[in-house]
Design goal:
34% of the residues lie in helices and 25% in strands. It has 292 residues and is an alpha+beta fold. The longest helix has 21 residues.
């Protein structure tokens, strides 16, 4: 690892000033579970300046304000798993966080790092998009807010500039009658990154008909996106195994149409369909997203 200038600001104001002063060429360090490994690889270009934001306590929040849940980027995956606010209002996110790495990784890795790294296999991003999350970016020029669904340009690249710092994630807490689930497929049951994943949020009315649906595959598209074709198929219908299987086939067809047919298609096509079906069924069998 090559030498670099290390800055540990104590406030957001100091952090964005450091990013501004270094012309956006500095890298932000939070939990370090991705960056420290990356920087140890041979041939990797090291930043001249590292801005360590881990001491900024205001960025550690997990709170409920009115109908919305607010997360600071330094909230760890372990904290999301244990938070009463998350388990009550967005259990799908706690479920996804619980699948990440080992206990050591979950207690060090942050929600902000999972978002900003932009890895297609990031487990918290599909649930956050399904929850309708927005992110706040701060810089020396002020702040701006954008929907997480439009935040990613391509794998490992976001719309954030080098002078912007992720300072908040916001999304509505799930209401009673809304069900949600996250299912992940990996090479083994623990300590493994996603090969494919699916997050689903489904609302039903008093008559049992689906009034809203959000389905977000992970590690499937070049960037995360809702599958509107399958969502529209569900709305206005009663939940059923047949309906969920059809939604799975629609999601699979949309993914294959975008990514094209390749050697892995024979495997992915039925697996994506089955994973979507299983995720939707899980919404109605164990109500992972919201307490009964």
């Amino acid at each position: 690892m090559k030498p670099f200038t290390y800055i540990a600001p104590g406030s957001v104001k100091e952090a964005v000033a450091a990013l501004h002063e270094n012309g956006g060429t500095a890298r932000v360090l939070a939990g370090g579970t991705d960056l420290l490994l990356e920087w140890r690889r041979p041939g990797v270009r090291m930043p001249a300046v590292v801005v360590d934001i881990s001491r900024i306590e205001s960025l550690r929040r997990i709170s409920l304000e009115g109908p919305d849940i607010l997360l600071g980027p330094l909230a760890t995956h372990g904290e999301l798993m244990r938070s009463g606010v998350i388990r009550s209002g967005a259990a799908i996110l706690a479920s996804a966080a619980s699948t990440i790495g080992s206990p050591q990784i979950r207690n060090r890795g942050t929600i902000g790092g999972n978002i900003m790294n932009g890895a297609p296999c990031a487990d918290t991003v599909p649930p956050l998009i399904a929850l309708g999350a927005t992110v706040t970016l701060s810089s020396a020029d002020g702040t701006r807010e954008c929907h997480l669904s439009g935040f990613f340009n391509k794998p490992y690249a976001t719309i954030a500039t080098g002078e912007e710092l992720l300072t908040q994630v916001r999304f509505p807490a799930l209401l009673p009658g809304t069900k949600a689930s996250f299912v992940k497929l990996a090479r083994r049951n623990a300590l493994s990154i996603s090969r494919l994943s699916v997050a689903a949020v489904v609302s039903v009315d008093d008559s049992g008909l689906i009034t809203d649906a959000r389905i977000v595959p992970g590690a499937a598209h070049s960037v995360w996106k809702r599958t509107m074709e399958a969502e529209n198929l569900l709305i206005g219908k009663a939940p059923s195994a047949t309906l969920f299987a059809e939604a799975g086939r629609v999601v699979s067809a949309v993914v294959i149409k975008e990514t094209g047919r390749r050697w892995s298609t024979e495997y992915k096509e039925p697996v994506i369909a089955a994973l979507v079906r299983r995720t939707l069924e899980k919404c109605f069998t164990d109500n992972d997203g919201h307490p009964s």
